[in-house]
Structure formats: C-alpha cells, structure tokens
Amino acid sequence: NLTNAEKWYVYAASSEHNPSLYSFSYKNSKNGQALYALATLYLHSFNYRYFDVNDSNIINLLVRKSKMWSFAKLEVNASYIINLLVRAAEEGNISAQRELAIIGYKNPYVYINISVDSKEAFKWAKEAAENGDTDSQYLFALMHKEGYCTKVNIPEAEKWFFHAAKSGHTEAQKNLASILLCKSDTKSHLEAIQWL
User: Fold this and answer.
1) Could you give the C-alpha distances from 154 to 86, 92, 146, in angstroms and in order?
2) Could you report the per-residue pLDDT of 144-170, keeping only the tens digit for each?
3) How far apart are CA 137 and CA 175, in angstroms?
4) CA dist list (Å): 115 to 33, 80, 96, 160
5) How far is residue 96's CA from residue 19's CA, in Å, rounded to a whole number?
6) What number of CA atoms fall less than 13 Å from residue 133's CA on the CB side?
7) Which helix (H) or strand (E) holds 89?
8) Nearest to 16 by CA among 65, 46, 57, 66
C-alpha cells in the first residue's frame, strides 16, 4: 500500500538512522521516490551500521510496519524489493534505475539473496546514464569496457567515461585517462594528462 510506504518513508527520511534517505524531500515526493525510499530502507536495514541498535523506537517501527521480513531473523522478500525498484524506475526515478543496474552488475548486498537480470541491469544503466546520472554513466562505461551484456566497445566506454569525468567522477577520470594513454596520438596523451 503506497500510503503506508509514504508514511514509512517520511519517518525514515526524517530520522537520523538512515543516511541513504537524506537526499529525498517528502514535500516534492512522487510515487517513484516513495517506492525507491522504501526499497532502500529494506535493503539497508540489514546492515547495522545504518541503525543505532540501541534505539528501540526505530527497531519497533521496523518490526511493526514490515510484513515482508523479520528484523530478528534477517529475512527479506527479495522479489518484493526488486518490484519496488522496478516500479520506481519505470516512473522515472533515476536512483532506482541506478540501483537496479548496480544490483545486476555486481550485487553489493551480499547479505540478501537478490538479483537483477544482466539485460535489465544494462537497460537501467543506459536509461539512468542518458538521464545524466554520473554514477550510472560511469557504470555504463564499465559495462562497455568489460563487455557486460554487450560486446567490448572501447569508444562507447570512452564516451561515457568522459560524461562522468566532466561531472567530477574521479574513477571515470582515471579510466578515461587510461584509455586516452593507450592511443598513439599526442593529442590524446595531452588530453589524458588533464584527467590525471
């Protein structure tokens, strides 16, 4: 129920216990943001560094509000989280698009058995990258560089590393410099120096 999701989102965003939700503003919230925030809360609630485990209020809220998982047993319905993220991504939420791409590419949530099909991950990385998300531009460049769900395409990787690099993404800058240094012309080498 979206109303309950939004109520939970308001509580999470206004508490000091989940910094991953600080960037959202409820006043301007669209359904996609609420869905993404709820999915993010599910994903991060199993990593105690996001919560002060001595705060009984938030633990009680999590246990009381969630019917999908048990805080005590650390169980989660992964398909429900993916469903929330997909719904948010389809509504244009770039953060949800990026999260789906990251989960598919290299799942950082090792404590949850959660996955996204590689083709879906590639699709969402592309969507978020084209919408200007710097981290997604970097990820999409990596996918092209490594041949993840596509043929290795260094010119395409260079293009997306460049987009991310000009927005200040340091890893993209290093990767772009590396590609430019592999070229044989002096102009590329001089350009590489500016990114190092």
Assistant:
1) 29, 28, 9
2) 999 999 999 999 999 999 999 999 999
3) 12
4) 21, 12, 14, 25
5) 16
6) 21
7) helix 78-90
8) 57
- Residue whose pair of structure tokens reads 């938030």 in the numeric block: 58
DSSP state of 19: G
At 100-147, the pLDDT tens digits run 999 999 888 766 778 899 999 999 999 999 999 999 999 999 999 999
Mark residue 72 as left, alpha or beta (left: phi above 0; alpha: psi -120 to 50; beta: remaining). alpha
Q: 38 Cβ partners below 8 Å, 6+ apart?
A: 5, 8, 9, 84
**Distance from chain centroid for Cα 33:** 13
Q: Rounded to whole angstroms, how far apart are CA atoms 21 and 15?
A: 9
* Full-model pTM: 0.70
Which of 108, 132, 42 minimizes the C-alpha distance to 79? 42
Rounded Cα gap, residues 15 and 35, in angstroms: 18
**Position 178, amino acid:** S
Residue 89, CB half-sphere, CA atoms under 13 Å: how many?
23
Structure tokens at 136: 């997604």
Determine the pLDDT at residue 152: 96
* H or E element at residue 64: helix 56-65
